[in-house]
Amino acid sequence: FIDVTQVESQYDKYDLIHRFWLMASLMQCLDRQVPIWDIFTEEEILVWAEIENYKYFAQKGPEPVSHGRSWGLASRTLRHLLDESAEDLVRKRHGINLNFGHDGVLMAILTNLQAGTWAREASNSKEALRSWKYWDIPMGANLQMIFYQSEGNPDVLVKFMLNEKDLRLPLEAVEASYYKWNEVYKFYIEHCDKVEKSLAETLKLSYEDF
């Protein structure tokens, strides 16, 4: 900038730096690459990544202050996925169902699934980094529910995959990352019921309660 005072009068300096950092980190999604990482030091890049990670954690993850509202709303989306799958199984449909959403929705669904470390609480940004990494949900991320049934066994098995990698659920697996669908459905429908009840109760909270 030729005249820094004009910039300072229009923008908060930290907000402006953050905007440039976002521009640099999102440049990979554009057809034309303009290298601007060199305006940051390595330490600045990592610090802003930690800040951005905690922002997503507070918005879509198990941040205790939110009383579960930050991630709880995605329980309705999870319920939809479960019921849609259950209906397909009853009708003996074979094929693929596709649902699309933003990265934040997927993060909140993973918190509801309690998959891996996505539901682990943290009270500060450094704690959150140990279990929550928003860059694991890039643009084009995908969550798959893959169903299996053999001719000789009536039990339907399901495997969850995040970006083609198996997810561990808080349930007893039949083998590796394969779970009984009936147990998965019952566990998460009860979870959704509990979360939605909590959402109704916390709706009455005021800003002073947070």
Structural topology:
Blueprint: H1 4-10, H2 13-26, H3 42-60, H4 69-72, H5 75-90, H6 103-113, H7 125-131, E1 143-148, E2 157-162, E3 165-166, E4 179-180, H8 181-202
Antiparallel strand pairs: 1-2, 2-3, 2-4
CATH-level-4 superfamily name of the largest domain: Phosphoglycerate mutase-like
Oligomer: single chain
* Cα gyration radius (Å): 21 Å
Strand content: 5-15%
The helical percent reads: 40-55%
Mean pLDDT: 91
Sheet with most strands? 4 strands, antiparallel
- SSE string, helices as H and strands as E: HHHHHHHEEEEH
How would you summarize what this structure contains?
This protein has 210 residues and is α+β, with helices and mostly antiparallel strands. It is 48% helix and 8% strand. The protein has helices at residues 4-10, 13-26, 42-60, 69-72, 75-90, 103-113, 125-131, 181-202, and strands at 143-148, 157-162, 165-166, 179-180.
Describe this structure in words.
The chain has helices at residues 4-10, 13-26, 42-60, 69-72, 75-90, 103-113, 125-131, 181-202, and strands at 143-148, 157-162, 165-166, 179-180. It has 210 residues and is an alpha+beta fold. It folds into 2 domains: 1-40, no CATH class; 41-209, 3-Layer(aba) Sandwich (Rossmann fold), CATH 3.40.50. Strands 1, 2, 3 and 4 form a 4-stranded antiparallel sheet that branches. A hairpin with a 2-residue loop joins strand 2 and strand 3. The two termini are 40 Å apart.
